[in-house]
Amino acid sequence: MNIETLEFFGAMAGHQRLGPDAMVLRGFALPFVSELMPSIADVEAVSPFRHMVTPSGFTMSVALTNCGALGWATDRRGYRYTAIDPESGKRWPAMPDVFARLANEAATAAGFNDFDPDACLVNRYLPGARLSLHQDKNERDYEAPIVSVSLGMRATFMFGGLKRTDPTIKVSLYHGDVMVWGGVDRLRFHGVMPLKEEPHPLLGSQRINFTFRKAG
Ligand code: SIN
Ligand code: FE2
């Protein structure tokens, strides 16, 4: 398919371009939800959600865990990827097949072929939780995109520029939406505004986000 045809079908599906290499795939994860939900419980049983501390000593309002060969972690010493969950002392749980399949298909739909993530950060937001503007730059490979899946309550996602002070655009991310950014947009600042309590029929008063990366 040529690029015009791809764009046309994307627009029909409600996909929204946020940059040359960034787009929101509306509802892309919906067909996967019934398989994703039990997998979250499996991950959580091995590596529970926890509130990590940033290098500046701030306790994050977002609770997180990971699956895959590598997991993102932070403490007073800095941000990094680890093979071992610092809390359990064991490997992070393996990435369920359905996660990897969804991430690969979403990346392809956004124009990034052969995405093979080795890390999936799972974020849990309760009402009031937020994520301040940051760049995803602890990964070794900036060639691969970031694929971010939203489930549950709506979030207002902020997408900025390459400098922290650049203006941000705000986009609502709904249950089932997948946001992909890579290429020239790979290092754009982004964050999430404090979550409003708008309970979701399936997940209640929470939002779960998966961010897939090629980290190692
Ligand atoms: C992140 O940047 O790690 C998460 C983004 C989100 O929760 O949508
Ligand atoms: Fe991020």
Automatic annotation (TrEMBL):
InterPro entries: Alkb (IPR004574), AlkB-like (IPR027450), AlkB-like_sf (IPR037151), Oxoglu/Fe-dep_dioxygenase_dom (IPR005123)
Ranges where the Fe2OG dioxygenase domain occurs: 116-216
Pfam families: 2OG-FeII_Oxy_2
Signal peptide residues on this chain, from the entry's feature table: none
MF term (GO), any: broad specificity oxidative DNA demethylase activity
UniProt entry tagged with the keyword Membrane: no
Gene from which this protein is expressed: alkB
PANTHER family for the chain: ALKYLATED DNA REPAIR PROTEIN ALKB-RELATED (PTHR16557), NUCLEIC ACID DIOXYGENASE ALKBH1 (PTHR16557:SF2)
Enzyme class: oxidoreductase
Domain of life: Bacteria
Key words of the record: Dioxygenase, Iron, Metal-binding, Oxidoreductase
SUPFAM superfamilies associated with the record: Clavaminate synthase-like
EC number: 1.14.11.33
Cofactor: Fe(2+)
Protein name listed in UniProt: DNA oxidative demethylase AlkB
